[in-house]
Amino acid sequence: MYRIAVTTNFRASHQLKFADMTESCHRHDWKAEAAVGGQGLDDNGLLFDFNKLKKILESIVCRLDGRKLEDLECFENTNASAENVARYIYDSIKSQLPKNIDLLYVEVTETPGCKTRYGESR
Prior knowledge:
This protein has 122 residues and is α+β, with helices and mostly antiparallel strands. The protein has helices at residues 50-61, 82-94, and strands at 2-14, 26-38, 102-111, 114-118.
């Protein structure tokens, strides 16, 4: 299987709510990575164009950039945790890929050393 991955950055704030407390609103410089895979290469020797994948990823994270995540409809009824951000990006990318390309995972880094990965298990 061939695999490629791209990364991009965005800045967004969030304020997680727990049963006994609510965090102060705080901002992170997030990093998002998306990886795809597949069995074959096209006539140009590519699994999938890096630039196309990065454009898809950036078109999704630009909706989050500069925002308080809880103000967005996609996080209206759920905590905008790194885990939920990764799942949102994953679901948004998946529908934009050709059938022969598998979305392997989306990894989100909230702060250096703190990251999560979301992907379908196979």
